[in-house]
Amino acid sequence: MSASFTSALQAAQAAAGTQHYPASTLYVVATPIGNLADITLRALHVLELADAVACEDTRHTHSMLRAYGVGKSGGQLIALHQHNEAEAAEQVIHRLQQGQRIAYVSDAGTPGVSDPGARLAAAVARAGLRVSPLPGASSVTALVSAAGAVAGEGASSGFAFIGFLPTKAQERQQAVAQLAQDSRTLVLLEAPHRIADLAQALAVLQDRPVTLGRELTKQFEDIATMAAADVPGWLAADPHRSKGEFALLLHPQAVQTDGLADAHRVLALLLAELPTKTAVKLAADITGAPRNALYDTALAWKRDAEQADD
């Protein structure tokens, strides 16, 4: 048993052991996003109690369980990831029908939010079996809690989780054009090898504040807020800033009334199907926005796409 978590396991048994954990139940368990200490006592207890643990990566999960001192054999780990979720769900359902308790964990954070788990939970529910969530760490809520995103006058309250934007440059630009019209707090995720491309795409949002959360809960955690236009320069100023997993938060903005955001959305949609000059002319005719301004925007998007594809 891992010495550092011995007392935690004992506390988990004392705090959660007297609660009821029905058989034939899928327990969806949130796990840390970087700091092993961010595990709940109930999660530790259920991981010990479970007859099997379905997981995104068996090697990663075996290492995590070993760090906690939770003993599970290889036969008690079920690989369930985005490429086999439908098939592996049938195996989980079969075990649940036999009266087993199955825990599901993704590689980090809360399953089913951006990681696999949603299809599994839906399949188990369709089979008439119980799904029980064990909440915990999430990069989404972690960043929202630290960003201080307060809706101002004319802006919508609440937030929307967007996740990963498309990887292709033109599709990503279209997605950003749509985000520009959403006045709510918006949360995105991105991998380190694509963060520079995303930063360039978001730069068209100009003065809209963006909070970047890098390596959240880990030793080199970095949280910074700046205008969207300044994000590419901030990343380029220090090569270490492009390392690690990212969560990004677009702060709420006042609803735009000049029609430019809508013109950009129309332009992005037309550019996906038409030559630049034709798309610009039609966007100007449809929205009434200045043709020269739209043409400059289209050229800027094209340059960004070419740089991203190099």
From TrEMBL:
Pfam families in UniProt: RsmI_C (PF23016), TP_methylase (PF00590)
GO process annotations (BP): methylation
Transmembrane segments: none
Domain RsmI HTH span(s) in chain numbering: 260-302
Catalytic activity line of the entry: cytidine(1402) in 16S rRNA + S-adenosyl-L-methionine = 2'-O-methylcytidine(1402) in 16S rRNA + S-adenosyl-L-homocysteine + H(+)
GO molecular function, one term: methyltransferase activity
Subcellular localization: Cytoplasm
Record carries keyword Cell membrane: no
Keyword list, A-Z: Cytoplasm, Methyltransferase, rRNA processing, S-adenosyl-L-methionine, Transferase
First-listed, main subcellular location of the protein, grouped into a coarse class: cytoplasm
Enzyme Commission (EC) number: 2.1.1.198
InterPro entries per the UniProt record, alphabetical: 4pyrrol_Mease, 4pyrrol_Methylase_sf, 4pyrrole_Mease_sub1, 4pyrrole_Mease_sub2, rRNA_ssu_MeTfrase_I, RsmI_HTH, SAM_MeTrfase_RsmI_CS
Residue ranges constituting the Tetrapyrrole methylase domain according to the UniProt record: 25-229
Highest taxon of the lineage: Bacteria
Keyword Transmembrane: no
Role, per record: Catalyzes the 2'-O-methylation of the ribose of cytidine 1402 (C1402) in 16S rRNA.
Listed HAMAP family: 16SrRNA_methyltr_I (MF_01877)
Family named by the database record: Belongs to the methyltransferase superfamily. RsmI family.
Name the UniProt record assigns to this protein: Ribosomal RNA small subunit methyltransferase I
Name of encoding gene: rsmI
